[in-house]
Amino acid sequence: MLHLPLECKRSFSASISPQYSLIHRGQSAKTPKPSYRLYRSGRLLFACADRAEFLHRFGSVISLYVAEASRKRTFVHAGVVGWGGRAILIPGRSFSGKTTLVAELVRAGAIYYSDEFAVIDKQGMVYPYARPLQVRENGSSHQTERPVEHFGGIAGQEPLPVGLVIVSRYKPEAHWRPRQISLGVGLLKILDNTVSARRAPAVAMSTLKQVVSNALIVRGVRGDASHVVDWIAAHFGSPAIFPGLTQ
Fold first, then answer.
1. Are 132 and 145 in contact (CB under 8 A)?
2. E strands along 162-242, which residues?
3. What distance in Å separates the CA atoms of residue 151 and residue 102, rounded to the nearest whole number?
């Protein structure tokens, strides 16, 4: 259960679609290394020799399917923290630097919500998806799970409206000089990271309009994550204070 999506439950059904199958071959004279193969409805998804790697990749496959197929919530590839009763949304896929920024915000006192998906209802409220942070060591592709307590933080419990959206990309030594962008451009940037955008575009658009309706959206290139945190603190006060935003 550790590698499955949050809050999943056992269920029994006569009809299962899609169906996932694991074929494991142990070590033998003919196969010096064990192998794990994952199939979905008879089609091979991937194969690997390491059990831990298999479980991690299997968890990612299931989480992505849940994100795409969900009918009640819209899933966006994003980091999320709570700051003064509102959510800060940081859309981006792997290697965009969102986990580093989320961890730095948590160190500064923000409430942890997610470093993987922003889970959003039809009213635009963001729910916690507080799995351990997936930290990349020294810029490598290898990820290490770190609980939020490792960064001196706590996980959120209640849904929040979005107050700030940060569209950024990491560039070493860059200076953080964000500029405000329009709600329309911001919505498209978030939509580009929305898992169900192709399957259910109308629902995704309707949900994201609620997300951006009362949010400030900024874009920029960032270097050290601490500079972004300092900018947020300078403009919006401490994590306990988030003044009203004007467009």
1. yes
2. 162-170, 179-180, 216-222
3. 10
Determine the length of the chain: 247
Q: Which amino acid is at 165?
A: V
- Please calculate the CA angle 239-99-144 and round it to the nearest 5 degrees: 125
- Joined together, the tokens standing for residue 41 give 């409805």
DSSP 42: T
Tell me: the pLDDT tens digits for 118-155?
Answer: 999 999 999 999 888 888 766 556 678 888 999 999 99
- Supply the pTM of this predicted model: 0.83
What's residue 65's pLDDT?
83
Nearest to 199 by CA among 16, 66, 38: 66
Work out the pLDDT band at 246, boundaries 50, 70, 90: very low
Torsions phi, psi of 47, nearest 5?
-140, 145
- DSSP secondary structure, 140-167, as one string: -S-EEEE-GGGGT--B--S-B-EEEEEE
> What pLDDT does residue 245 have?
47
